[in-house]
Amino acid sequence: MEVFTILWTHVIPFILVLTVLVFVHELGHYFAARRCGVRVEIFSIGFGPEIVGFTGKTGTHWKLSAIPFGGYVRMFGESPPTQKGSREPQSNEEDAVSFYKKSLGQRSWIVFAGPLANFLFAVLLLAGLFSIVGEPYTPANVGKVKSNSAAEIAGLKQGDVFLKIDDFNIKSFEEVRRIVQASPQKPLNILVERNSRKILLVAIPKSLEVSSYGSKTTIGLLGVSRSAEDMIFVRLNPFEAIWEASHRTAVLTGKILDAVGQIISGDRNAKELGGPLRIAQISGDMAQAGIISLIQFAAILSINLGLINLFPIPLLDGGHLVFYGIEALRGRPVGQKVMTNSLNIGLVFILFLTIFVTWNDLVQLRFVEYVVGLVN
User: Do residues 150 and 127 share a domain?
Assistant: First the structure.
């Protein structure tokens, strides 16, 4: 019964969210390819044996495969005619629909369109929420100041209204929390309104190590809570919603890149990297929290998927774009031997990374301790 509950509350929401995001990603490749006149032979959600499928009017075989972690679009003439396993176009008509025969700009656009579709889908999800349900908003009023906190030391008082932190204008309490959490032990210039007067204060948020879904990170803590006013949802018109959703997507993208940079530089622990198990856990938690939370998480995951695919790693879209960039500089494609070796290295790297993040998941979710306990 417990296994069934886990499947229903965590695994199924994860697979559904991932399937939608993979479909969107591959649809980006598909539409770009069709727009450039390339024949798409297969559109697959998942890998392995086909579960169900059909062939459309354009000749594309659409299918759902048994292994739901990913997908692919197979285009006619993806590989150079000299590559092993490739087929030389037999006519001018086949030349016209071959991916390899397209211009460098068209090939680059087809590859880039997949990640782009994920970013646009995130904007669409968030814009839909902001225009239909509303953007979560809490007035930036100080409801309580914790004793001996960074806020009390800085001189913040109950009833103060945040107006500005450094160069950022403050409209909601969420913005205050976001800036403070990203600034542990960093001086912040805070402009507040108190009794119709503007007062400038300097606060240094204290450091706090927190754990979320098995990952530990250090955040800033100011020591204030919002007023007792309930959170409200402000509905935006379609133009405002798209603008705010685009801004939110850009901010989240920057945060992800910053986190990756900190891991590479050693400022953050690589153990914070999560894999499919942790994503499944979060998906389930968001699904239980409600459809709004699940949609917000899907938007964040879509941004992650688009960004990861743009990393300059062979086998990923970003790796192909690097090859096309080299081709643009050299005036001719990268040599086949170099391409093959790079793809093999990319495959090994991705396999190693998959194993690493899965092991992280197992450790952080205490699966290893559970198994050891069973043995002992």
Answer: no
CA dihedral sign of residues 31, 32, 36, 41: negative
234's CB contacts (< 8 A; 6+ apart) are: 134, 135, 137
Residues 33 and 106 in one domain: yes
| Total domains, the chain | 2
Its pTM stands at 0.75
DSSP H or E stretch at residue 22: helix 12-35
| Catalytically active residues, by annotation | 26
**For residues 182 and 204, what is the distance between their CA atoms, to the nearest angstrom?**
12
d(Cα 158, Cα 144) in Å, to the nearest integer?
5
Please give the single-letter amino acid code of residue 372.
V
- For residues 129 and 303, what is the distance between their CA atoms, to the nearest angstrom? 16
Question: How confident is the model over 209-241, as pLDDT tens digits?
Answer: 776 544 567 888 888 887 655 667 788 899 999
- H helices of 238-335, in order, are 238-265, 276-289, 291-309, 317-330
In angstroms, how far is CA 72 from the centroid of its own chain? 19
Residue-range definition of the domain harbouring residue 77: 2-133+279-375
Note whether 84 and 103 are same-domain residues: yes
DSSP state of 270: G
